[in-house]
Design brief:
disordered C terminus, TIM Barrel, two-stranded antiparallel sheet, globular, eight-stranded parallel sheet
Length: 305
């Protein structure tokens, strides 16, 4: 499994660190000059902060495409970029005033817009949801609009990093993996990697920065380790060792419900009769909705579409 170190300092992209990095669009946008990346990296859209603060996306799809294109050209080595997705955490929905269904529709619609505007950019789709069935409803929505998720090199899984129950995330991840998707999980907990790491292709975390707030700085100029490169690299090295040890020993499987209903990974041509788990019991795929589920839905409040 590939693990991206989430960072707040774009200048670190220039350093020969030998590990993949994840940087937020919010840390890069508006900079006159950008660093030149020495290794592969990915850009996160910063959606949780954007929606939590403003209840909407302040930039439209064209503006975001222009920014990602600039990162790809000026920074280079860009592996993929997240879209302007809509997380479904209760705190976010309280700010947007929208339902889970509306957030799924807007997530899919934005990816379709970005893909149409810039098919050459490595922008990945993200599936969002609250319950397991929501994630599959989101995946179905992509497929109804011609996006074969199982044929793509990577699909993001959102709204999992703030969940306190690892077993809940495991059920989501394993059900999507059984659907044949190559997954990147945003900000999953270390315990989760030990339990279902073999079911995902990559993940990321900036948890080192949070823990570093409570550690005295390694130099007189550092009040804490929250922005210390040495601390971040040491944290990443320890995590990598733990992931490697788990891979050798075999994954921890402490939640039998998470394994119920999983199916052998199939090619896109053989998935038409697929069923996915809804907690412990299998359930049929959600019924297909109207074709205007995405295109016909109105934009978020104040969104510039």
């Amino acid at each position: 499994m590939k693990f991206y170190l989430g960072i707040h300092q774009p200048a670190w992209l220039e350093r020969d660190l030998g590990i993949p990095l994840l940087v937020s669009h919010r840390r890069l946008a508006g900079r006159r000059t950008l660093p030149r990346a020495t290794h592969p990296w990915a850009v996160d859209s910063g959606g949780f902060s954007e929606l939590s603060l403003y209840g909407r996306w302040r930039s439209d799809a064209r503006s975001y495409v222009a920014a990602v294109r600039r990162y790809a050209e000026e920074i280079g080595n860009l592996e993929w970029a997240a879209p302007q997705d809509w997380m479904v955490e209760a705190a976010v929905r309280a700010r947007t005033g929208l339902s889970v269904r509306a957030h799924l529709q807007r997530t899919v619609r934005n990816y379709l817009q970005l893909r149409d505007l810039a098919p050459e950019l490595p922008i990945i789709p993200i599936v969002q949801g609250d319950q397991v069935t929501d994630y599959h409803r989101c995946a179905d929505l992509y497929e109804r609009h011609g996006v074969d998720l199982a044929a793509l090199s990577l699909v993001g899984v959102g709204s999992v990093c703030r969940r306190s129950h690892t077993g809940e995330v495991e059920r989501i991840v394993r059900s999507l993996h059984a659907r044949g998707l190559v997954l990147h999980c945003f900000g999953v907990k270390i315990l989760g990697l030990a339990r279902y790491g073999e079911a995902i292709a990559s993940s990321d975390s900036a948890a080192w920065s949070f823990s570093g707030r409570y550690v005295a700085g390694c130099t007189p100029s550092h009040r804490s380790e929250a922005n210390c490169l040495r601390y971040a690299l040491d944290w990443h090295a320890r995590l990598h060792q733990r992931i490697t040890a788990t891979t050798v020993a075999g994954p921890v499987r402490s939640d039998p419900e998470a394994r119920a209903g999983t199916v052998t990974r199939r090619s896109p041509q053989r998935r038409r009769g697929y069923t996915h788990p809804d907690t412990a019991r299998p359930a049929s795929r959600p019924a297909h909705g109207r074709a205007d589920d995405v295109a016909g839905s109105s934009p978020g409040r104040g969104a510039r579409r």
